[in-house]
Prior knowledge:
GO terms for molecular function: 3-hydroxypropionate dehydrogenase (NADP+) activity. Its EC number is 1.1.1.298. The protein has 210 residues and is an alpha+beta fold. The chain has one domain (25-181): NADH Oxidase (3-Layer(aba) Sandwich), CATH 3.40.109.10. Helices cover 41% and strands 14% of the residues. It contains ten helices and four strands. The protein has helices at 5-8, 13-21, 36-46, 66-73, 80-86, 103-106, 113-118, 121-145, 158-165, 203-206, and strands spanning 58-63, 89-96, 149-153, 171-180. A four-stranded antiparallel β-sheet has the order 1-2-4-3. Helix 2 packs across helix 8 and helix 3 (36-46) packs across helix 8 (121-145). The longest helix has 25 residues, at 121-145. Residues 24-25, 80, 152-155, 175, 193, 197-198 line the site of flavin mononucleotide (FMN).
Amino acid sequence: MSIDTSQSAVVSDEVLDLVFREARTVNTFSDEDVSDEQVREVWELVRWGPTAFNSLPMRMLLVRSTEARERLASHMSGSNAAKTLRAPLSIVLAADLDFHEHLPRLAPHLAALRDQLADAPDSRTATSRDNTFLQAGYLVVGLRAAGLHVGPMTGFDAPGVDADLFAGSPWRSIMVLNVGAAPADHEGFSTPATRDRQARLDFEDVARVV
Ligand SMILES: Cc1cc2nc3c(=O)[nH]c(=O)nc-3n(C[C@H](O)[C@H](O)[C@H](O)COP(=O)(O)O)c2cc1C
């Protein structure tokens, strides 16, 4: 069932197709580059998505040089390595365990929180990881809204990535996004994927009304 945009009058059906209905997880891209500027524009949009305490703990490592790409691929599981090497850009999404250092600027109304979290590493790790996953979702949707195609992956050796790419840093990898444009022979919104679209749960499967 499609959203009646004449009633809700918020976002066109075309945009909803681009971002949700027709968007697929892909592993094949054109050779076209994805620039830092494109990712910056997407960030400047998706940073408005809500996070706990306005903490914004997600960080991004844009991996594009051959050397960095090979290093990242060496930590990817199975076929994820080849997928990573084929993508014009891979973005390692990381949870910043020291996100609390930014709270005086991001949440000045919570004056004591920075110092409380400084003494609570477990709570910081949980908040950072939870909200980084949330922001990762915003980012996937934002990249798709910018017309880019995305392949998210968690199949990799995260401690290995952290030791190799984030040594001495409070960033902890949680997801890798392969990002690119559609292959040249591709037409329309629907994204080329290796297998048919799989089922999704219905409202009745996921919702209870009390
Ligand atoms: C958090 C996350 C982790 C994923 N990890 C992998 C992965 O390691 N390797 C892979 O090939 N696909 C991975 N996927 C892709 C999913 O299998 C895919 O999004 C899902 O089957 C839906 O496919 P569709 O978007 O084409 O409908 C991941 C997706 C998400 C969101």
